[in-house]
Amino acid sequence: MINFKSYIDAKKELTTQEKVGQLFMPAAFINDSEEEILQIEKLIKEECIGGLCFFHSRASAATNFEGKKQVLYNENSYERLKYLIARYQKVTEYPLLIAIDAEWGLAMRIENTPQYPYAVTLGALQNRLDLIFKVGQYIGLDCKKANIHWNLGPVVDINDNPDNPVIGYRSFGDKKEEVTEKAKAFLQGMQSVGVLNSLKHFPGHGDTAVDSHLDLPTIKKSKETLLDNELYPYQKLIKEDIDSIMVGHLSVPALGNGRNTSATVSKEIIQGILREELGFDGVVISDALNMHAVSKLYPKKGELEWNAFEAGNDMLCFAENPQEGIGFISEKSNQTKIEKSFERIWKLKEKVFFEKSPQILDTKNYSKLIKELAVESLSIFHGNENIIKEFRSDSVELLQIGNPKNNYFFEGLTKEIKSIKGENVLIALFPPKMKPKGNFGLSDLELDLLKNTLNSKNSILYIFGNPYVLNLFDFTKTKATLLVYQDFKAFQENATAHFMGTTSAKGKLPVKIKNGKNG
What we know:
This protein is an alpha/beta fold. The chain is about 40% helix and about 10% strand. Strands 10-14-13-12-11 form a 5-stranded mixed sheet, with helices on both faces. Strands 2-3-4-5 form a 4-stranded parallel sheet. A 3-stranded parallel sheet has the order 6-7-8. Helix 18 (about 445-455) links the parallel strand 12 (about 425-430) and strand 13. Helix 6 (about 130-145) packs across helix 7 (about 175-190) and helix 12 (about 305-310) packs across helix 13.
């Protein structure tokens, strides 16, 4: 057990500068070199850093926004993660809070770890909050086994913009009530095993068409509209023992006294709206401060960190200039304000290191859970079961678009039917990427093949990926279009069973696409 001091003892022992150090959560990278690891160890010791947020590598999406650096595969990333956590904890006098983005499991950052369905897939479930609870619980357990205390999730953004380049599949849907109840189930699952949580991205990143990794999105809605929609999940979930809320890099003039500045550095939004109007007194954590939406606006080292703290952030995530930021805050900020943020962070640490943790369960039923999720989420978006039944009775040609590692869907079907070229075509669409940039990774040739087939043949389409790919073509040209959401083996095998008529589609698409159609 890590030696941990009470808040009273720590308050007496730490200097003001050390208390400020506790408010910093720099990035740590699983695939760092020894030289880079030593630099982080030096930072932890010299600056009394409070926590670390783990990412895959310095070439991964969270740092390599334009995708110009190659991300190297490392099959030993999980063991490396545990090794580094233990190593960093050894060099600190005051235990570190270890955080990670595990919205759909550790697989979001780490190879060869359990992956769970995306939020949009969970959003398709109908009246199965019990399964979402289990997903939150299992992800929490995976975090605990890796000695991670804080999962920076769930996303409670209401994704009502089909062109959203960064949230999309990470949201439970476009209806505030459903997003709220599904996020609550996920939260309760994590809480049941003692893992910290964070609602994000306050005040709401769902209705944006700009990626805040690259630039600052602006939401031009009235305060009344925002309170009724984007802020609805926060108003409801703040009552559910929320550990933290992450503030997004978003300009929301209606909440910030008309100013076109990021919420991350807005006192009006954090202290005025979140603290005073909504009554949240837990930890406020910034979104990653390396993101271009804000980082490029503050060329002087430490100035961004100071502004983010002054605005009301208690924990400064992915601060790229911690030494300078600690200096700025220690010198310029109000002592009472520093003490209040330090107290909030220390309370989280007490919760992690002092409170009796729930008994660790196991995740041996992971495969069973994934199969249940596959059955419950499959959605008919266009057409109906009778059309599929009639289609199945004729000869069918199989057409794959995209290049998955395995096409279990067709493997299962070829045991049941013979693929014959003709007028009836069963299409399996595997979009290579979940994000919409570059047409989800589909080439022009692949899109042309899809569109030409839809225009010239009788077709049924199963989509194994982000449902927003529907924005790229006219789905009404199909006899039926079905959303499988994931390309996991269990999801593909369930799709096979569905086409063969041995299971039904129980889910419903939880978002609208560009033509306004909802599942």
